[in-house]
What we know:
With 635 residues, this protein is of the alpha/beta class. Among the domains are: 320-526, P-loop containing nucleotide triphosphate hydrolases (Rossmann fold, 3-Layer(aba) Sandwich), CATH 3.40.50.300; 543-549 and 560-630, Helix Hairpins (Orthogonal Bundle). 45% of the residues lie in helices and 20% in strands. The strands form five sheets. The chain has a six-stranded mixed sheet, sandwiched between helices. It has a six-stranded mixed sheet with strand order 14-17-18-12-19-20. A three-stranded antiparallel sheet has the order 2-1-4, with helices on one face. Helix 9 (240-272) packs across helix 11 (284-299).
Amino acid sequence: MPLLRTSNACLAFGHVPLLDHADFQLDAGERVALIGRNGSGKTSLLKALSGTGSLDDGESWQQPGLKLAYVPQEPQFDAALTVFQAVVTGMGEASRLLAEWHQVSHQLAVSEHNHEALLDQLNHLQHDLESLGAWSAASQAEHTIQRFSLDPEAIVGTLSGGQKKRLALAQALASEPEVLLLDEPTNHLDVSAIEWLEEMLMGSGVTLLFITHDRRFLDRLATRIVELDRGKLVSFPGSYSEYQSRKMQMLQDEAIQNRKADRLLAQEEVWIRKGVEARRTRAEGRIRRLEELRAQRAERRNKLGSARLSLDAGDKSGKLVAELVDTGKSFGEKLIVRNFTTRIQRGDKIGLIGPNGAGKTTLLRLILGELAPDSGTVRMGSKIEVAYFDQFRTALDPEATLIDVISPGSDFVEIAGQRKHVISYLEDFLFAPERSRSPVKSLSGGERNRLLLARLFARPANVLVLDEPTNDLDIETLELLEQLLQDYSGTLFLVSHDRTFLDNVVTQTIVAEGNGIWKEYAGGYADWVRCQKENRENAKARSNPSAATDKPSKAGSKPTTKLSWKEQRELEALPERIALLEAEQSALTLKLSDPATHQAASEAIKVSARLEAIDAELLKLLERWELLEKGSVQS
């Protein structure tokens, strides 16, 4: 029996049907990815299934008593609530009591006054919660908040975009739903948070219906792909790559059928134009068939066109774009960049990877000479023309028309030396001519991203800075953008949490390692992950001296000096000491990468100081280990 179902669903905005007699069913245990072009109606379908939206016609059904949670693309919260209060909001009747109990408990822990009154109030609340059987809900809320690394006492209005997305997911999961509906869950999350979410959803057993442009997230989670295309829903079992091959075959078959139908229609049109001869033959059946062919041709909705992207790199920059030597930067007590050295050359395509708040934008501004370092040197190259793509779309005036955004005061743009009418140029980015004078505020998130790309590419630039360009773009446009950037002859800086996009575009990565340390790696995201794995394996090998001592000595090697009993005990204890320090180092690095840590300056300083102490201690222990293994210590 299905958990969710739509039957004969119809929904239209203006003259374009988003859902055209569409049927859908979600069964227990499935993880279904809903894909389609921007504006095709995916979010509208999700809202209808969740009960927060309606259809023009048809039926949307949920299994009676189903526990369902829906996380929209841009979740809305009361800015005055605490994180805990916001999480328990979705727990029905118990939510008010839980929020009040948490508040009183916090007051009791931090206040030095009114203890008796607070205890009395807490006892009454505990009694009411017990009568509702809500204690497990409170425990679940606290556990979920902790898993998402959120501060339960933080005020919602102070949270960043990524923290609000984690809050929305925490609120949904705290209610322990049977079905979870997610609309672009990876937007505003950093790579580590996305990977954690993947693992959590795969291990939770929850039935899942989700919309995403993140192809790696999609491939790991989806057990079935459902495509919304021209109002119809088509199901493809299996992975996204399997969907791609089957979809290509379907489009080829559709094109063949359309050509056959068009040819038949043309033949029948010639026949009917004979007029008298047609009437004389009295072929009423043939005339009816012609009328049917005309109706079918009129109703046929051709596949949506693809964006036609082009990019002008302008004049070449100098071979050197930027050189940083032992560069450092801090804001107050927060260390952002420590002793970073790199050399950027023309044509490099660099991906920046790091958690939210790590300082990727600050590092970019240092590299491009827009921010002076506190220490070290920055040397800039010559003939550099920089263009920016801003993830927050601050470059777009919401009241401006699309034409004014692209080419203010002119009807033409010049791309690679060729003039093009601005309306035709907008059509390349899938904006219909009748929308060219619409205001920016009327556009969806994906459309605004396309408009910003159109504005960016309308001007020559030999250095591109793209900050989260993939948010809200459909997969087809993403793949076109990838190809464009691969062929771009200028220098690219790409900030993205889309792992597949990074792998397909960049030639090297600069990664935040924590505590202001940035390191450079060849290749894309997958190459960095491989390097990290190799480093862990090497560290593990160092922490297992028996593997080294069991190896036979090479012929001619210098015999080692026998260790004393005390030195042998010291050597045996070193791996455990190093492992404990490395575990503490990993935990503190993760804590330091959390923006919440920096809300209290003293806590960030304390963590940074401890990390420095661990680095020094590990170095000493590793050197001591090497000496002991060689037997070269002196008694």
